[in-house]
Design a protein that fits this description.
single chain, 423 residues, alpha+beta, Nucleotidyltransferase, domain 5, 2 domains, 7-stranded antiparallel beta sheet, 7-stranded mixed beta sheet, 10 helices
């Protein structure tokens, strides 16, 4: 059945120098409008104990001078974001979160930061042939200047915007320069590559172990651990945790982690397509940070740092939409006992995981990589007719999964022999 899917693609602005001043004015205008709306919402809260929704904010402020600094749809989006932020705060407050704070003003001393400016359908015009996009200004900023900002852009080589219906364009100020984000929508109806099933076990030392039922892949998280330790050390050297250098380090760490997760999810989906996989089963890590009593799990100093630094949910989200584009369904299942059970005979015993990376079954004699064994157990959760069948299948692939290492210099995963680095 055809489904509608939404993607956001980021692009570099090639004529940065020519458009910077105009985009700066729009970004500052968005911050000023946010502050006007913030002041009005605070007054309503003080007087009535209620928060105005975006509809009321638009009605009350559409005649304000700051509202007309931006295109009407861009101003509407600023007030919508403000209302969403207030609603999020109020929901936390209602649920007893005393630490939750309402959205603040966008101001640093006497200056305003450059806020993101969103342009809906009537606020931009896209020229796909020459890779340009025209962004409309507000009435106040058109005087003595052009009526629009003409940005020349460049996307990743694998992105073709002509295949998408562009719903919105955002101008985003990141690390000292402006970038464009294209929010796109399309209808997809891909056919699944096949009927095979793959299981994925997510963890700390090995970020992902993938079982296809006849072979397996191991993706160590060494690159992520190195980044976590490196950036934590560098950030500790900053005199002020809110300094420009600290923020730069945080952003760079986030960017590198995001790139790793995108690359890994893309790699796994590609391997599934090669093997005619129609369903990917992922272990649910929803309770990994809590023990059976609901208390935080203590994995040791290094383990806690690693665990809480990795965004398992973000990875699963990326995997889900990349798989959807190939017609592959993603399911999540409980990881209960998958690390303790033998994927061949089904025996469940804590003592069988003799080391972190080794699983030995006393019942049937299976010797396997512990994470691969867990991934196979996860795979079998949707294959009850095959689970623990006790047959004479060749289980060598469980003991020796193919290891794929992330090469930071090439930004991709390669076999251990080609990656040129240790896990």
């Amino acid at each position: 059945m055809p489904t509608r899917t939404i993607r956001t693609f980021e692009a570099t602005i090639l004529n940065q120098r020519q458009v910077r001043d105009d985009l700066d004015q729009l970004g500052w205008a968005a911050s000023k409008l946010w502050n006007v709306g913030r002041y009005y919402a605070q007054g309503m809260w003080d007087d009535t104990g209620e928060i105005p929704d975006d509809g009321e904010l638009k009605r009350e402020l559409k005649g304000h001078e700051r509202y007309t600094d931006l295109h009407s749809q861009s101003s509407q989006r600023v007030l919508e974001e403000l209302a969403e932020a207030f609603n999020g705060w109020f929901a936390k407050r209602r649920n007893g979160d005393d630490r939750a704070r309402p959205p603040g003003y966008r101001k640093h001393g006497d200056s305003h930061p450059r806020s993101t400016v969103s342009f809906k359908a009537a606020g931009f015009k896209h020229d796909a042939q020459y890779q340009r996009v025209r962004l409309s200004k507000g009435r106040n900023l058109k005087e003595h200047r052009s009526d629009f900002v003409l940005c020349e852009y460049k996307t990743r080589p694998d992105v073709d915007l002509t295949e998408w219906d562009i719903q919105q364009v955002r101008a985003v100020h990141k690390r000292g320069e402006w970038r464009l984000q294209f929010v796109c929508r399309t209808t997809i109806d891909p056919q699944p590559p096949g009927d095979e099933v793959a299981g994925i076990d997510l963890g700390i030392c090995n970020f992902a172990a993938v079982s296809f039922g006849g072979d397996s892949l191991l993706y160590p998280g060494g690159a992520l651990k190195e980044d976590e330790y490196y950036f934590a050390k560098k950030r500790a050297e900053c005199d002020d945790s809110f300094s420009r250098e600290a923020r730069r380090l945080d952003q760079k760490r986030t960017d590198r982690r995001t790139h790793f997760l995108h690359t890994l999810s893309k790699e796994i989906v590609a391997k599934c397509v090669e093997r005619e996989v129609g369903t990917i089963v992922v272990g649910d890590l929803g309770g990994i940070r809590e023990d059976e009593n609901g208390d935080p799990t203590n994995w040791g100093d290094h383990g806690n740092m690693d665990l809480h630094g990795w965004a398992f949910d973000r990875f699963t989200t990326m995997l889900d939409y990349k798989a959807e584009a190939e017609g592959i369904e993603v399911e999540t299942v409980s990881e209960r006992d998958t690390s303790k059970s033998c994927s061949v005979c089904g025996r469940c015993d804590d003592s069988q995981r003799v080391e972190r990376g080794l699983y030995v079954c006393d019942e049937c004699g299976l010797v396997a990589n512990a994470d691969t064994n867990g991934a196979e157990n996860i795979r079998q959760k949707v294959l009850p007719n095959l689970a623990t069948d006790g047959g004479d299948r060749d289980n060598g692939w469980l003991a020796q999964p193919a290891t794929r290492l992330f090469s930071r210099t090439r930004g991709a995963f390669f076999p251990r022999s080609e990656a040129g680095c240790e896990p």
